[in-house]
Task: structure prediction
Amino acid sequence: MNTIWALTGVVIKELYRRKDFYVLFVLTAVITFAAGSVRFFHDPNIVRYVKDLCMLLIWISALLITIVMAARQIPAERENRTIFPLLAKPVARGQVILGKFFGCWLASGTALAVFYLFFAIITGSREHYWPVLDYFQAFLLQWIMLGIVTAMTLLGSIIFAAPSSTVTILFVVVAGILFLGRHLNTIALHNSEPMRSVIYTIYFIIPHLELFDVRERVVNDWGLVNWLDCGLAALYAAAYTGLFLLLTWLAFRRKSLT
Amino acid sequence: MKKIPLGWPLALLLTVCFTLATLFVPRAAWWNAVPRAADWNKGWSQSDNVFKLLFGEGRRLFANEFFVMADVYFHSGYYPSIFDRQDTDRDVADPAHGKADDSNSTSDDFLGPPPDWIAALDRHFVPNRHTHLSSGGPSGHVKEVEVQEILPWLKLASDMNPQMIETYTVGAYWLSRLHMFAQARDFLFEGLHNNPGNSELLFDLGSLYNKDFHDANRARNVWMAGLRCWEAQSPNAKTNTEGQLIYEETAMNLANLEKDQGNWPQAVKYLKIVKQVSPNPDAIQKQIDEAKKKMADQPGISKP
Result:
């Protein structure tokens, strides 16, 4: 366990050494402030469009940070040849995978917490209303979703040749799931066989990342999602994360490092 | 690798500088020759805004999307996607068009029963009920003032397509309902600036003056301008059903205004206009007869 935590610590340190997080945070803050400074009909109380925009930027930034960070972990170790002394410690390949996963997941969680703190301060200062529990739930669900994305990206980094291709493919896949995931069953119904069965199969196989997107509920003040449903979603996410980590380990176990 | 001589980059730099200088000098001369700030906007209307500069005529494509966004906010996010069955009517515009704001309507329940367990679970994480921001919102006790959240989208839609009349009428309606009368008037002015003589905008502006500003004289003048603008249209344009309805309502409002002020001959004149376009001329004739009777009861009033 100590070995895994040691690897995790290294990944977390990488987050604050690199510029990605700072650049994305500043960009989010600048765009949000610029949008918030616009006055429509001289009314200072209009706030939902700022919340909407800020949440969208948080989602994009969090995905960028997570995917880019997770995609370069193992390829960078191979490229710098630090993977050999690491495995000679001795550290099992499974421990490397777990260490990298927890490192990326905790680092993305830390970044996400900073983003949500900014979001809460900005919206609270305009709305004079602090639904802290709603924000915490949205943060928690998004962080759980980032766990699946991290595991998927680690698997991608083992399969694909370069981090750039992993990042591109993962972005396309994640964006595709987020935009189309929940509509695949409807699309399937509008197709004839065998296309219908193919689309339905994809619908049931893919991890439904959009389940964890409660932006519209937060922006439009729909209140908390039942915690039992959140628990079910967390179990669903845990199953997919575990599956992707297992596949990553299986692929990495047979992978030649030279 | 062959080394590039030092002179080459310098020559390239000089060429770039010279090219830029030849491009910018004439513009700089024109820049200095501009005497007043007003000249910068010479020949530009208010619709020639930053969006026109960025998107050109393509910006009009976004206008409808922004109007839909106002409707999405009005429903607190409960809205059909492009994959769901869509209604072409926008609930956010219904009250402005005199239709009932029926937040309990189930006609927009586009989701239906969940087809599988993933969809069933998903519904707990998204807006899942048909509500209106103007009547309680998702929690049922949202203050009506929160309907202001739709306003940025209506403003953006009008900026994107200044000829989209509905954005001004719907925006002015909600501004007026939020007691932001001056802003509603200014928004309608903006609409009229971009669409001079539009009968619908003049009708709404007249109503705003009459109902919210309690200024019957201005309301009368604006409505009369509305009638004149409609009459000045080509015969083809006059066959438009919606335009005829606006004409009828404007004349009817004028008739009511004159009735309220005891100007019976004027009221009869406007009722006769209403009768020409009304689908129910018999009912209007009854009103004309009543007005004539009242006119006869008042001594010293000459018949129109």
